[in-house]
Amino acid sequence: MQPSELADVLELLARALRSLPSLVTDEKRSLAPAEVTISDWIATYKRLLGERGYKAQTLKNRCANIAHVERLWGKHGIKSLKPHEVSLALTEFLPDKSSTANRVLAELREIYREAIANDWADHNPATSVKLPAHKVQRARLKEDTWFAMRVFARTGPQRWLESLLLLALATGQRRADLAKMQFSDIVDGHLRVEQQKQAGKGYGARVAIPLSLRLDAINMTVGDVIEHCKNSANAGPTLLRKSGGGALEESSLSARFHECICSVLGPDAYHEHEWPSLHEVRSLSARMYLNQGLTMKQVQTLLGHKHEEMTALYIDDRGLSAGDWKPVDLKKGK
């Protein structure tokens, strides 16, 4: 081989070697989106959530949403998921589970925000997806239904069930707060409730309910209801107790409430997602106190709401009084 020919061969080899790094880089770029999936990132994301000090119930709820995300989009490349693929998958929840669709979409957005912050993704495909319309389906609890449930509870095997109905109505508190109320929470003539729901604040509303607060519809004060709780089971620290005095699980409160309302109204009174839940006693309480003469501000404080707009949602009876005639009040304002 002539020297000139050898030089040409060496030059060709040199050019080939110089092109190798760019070829490898391009190959990595093209393979990365397909190799790194949303499931790959979720493993890290769940670890990050676990390090942030969330309460056990909050983590449980978040993990339930994450499970849906992983099922629907886990196999997608984290950089290749498109908004229309997000929208299409969410339709499986519609129309009956639109609230679940909203929670899953919100979780997907958070998953991608964290992924972008940690350099796993460069855009959020969930940002431009419109939240599915959420139609309120659960019916409001009627006053006469509550009274019928109380009568039924008196003859049932769980003596604490009537106490639950009375305590929920007289205090207007949530299930978690009802379950944890203790006799030691009674201080200076008030029942002190530090609400479990924190709404992202890191602390719950603190409400001191006077034992003298009377609900005219049942002709009982909060103090009377507490005395009823005291006599409904053997001694124990909590207001609501099993017959032996032990504390009750939150799930038991809801389960027995649902059994009671089904027994009173019959199993076909509502469709599956329309049945009034224990939480609806909170709305009934607000409406009854407002009709009795308490001001909106007083009801707002009782419920522990920061904003009056939220209280207004609770006192909306969702059409129960739509057929009533409403007289025009001619009294002069003071």
Helix-strand layout with pairing:
Layout: H1 3-35, H2 38-50, H3 56-73, H4 83-90, H5 98-117, H6 143-154, H7 160-171, H8 175-180, E1 186-187, E2 190-194, E3 206-210, E4 214-215, E5 220-221, H9 222-230, H10 250-265, H11 280-292, H12 296-303, H13 308-315
Antiparallel strand pairs: 1-2, 2-3, 4-5
Helix pairs in contact: 2-3, 3-5, 6-7, 6-10, 7-9, 7-11, 11-12, 12-13
Number of helices: 13
Number of domains: 2
Helix content: 40-55%
Q: Major β-sheet, in short?
A: 3 strands, antiparallel
Tertiary shape: elongated
How many β strands by DSSP? 5
Instruction: Name the CATH homologous superfamily of the largest domain.
Output: Intergrase catalytic core
Instruction: Give the distance, in angstroms, between the N- and C-terminal Cα atoms.
Output: 114 Å
Q: How big is the Rg?
A: 29 Å
What is the CATH third-level topology name of the largest domain?
A: hpI Integrase, Chain A
User: How much strand content do the residues show?
Assistant: under 5%
Description of the structure:
This protein has 334 residues and is mainly alpha-helical. It is built from 13 helices and 5 strands. The chain has a 3-stranded antiparallel β-sheet, covered by helices on one side. Strands 4-5 form a two-stranded antiparallel ribbon. Strand 1 and strand 2 form a beta hairpin. It is elongated. Residues 20-33 have low confidence and may be disordered.
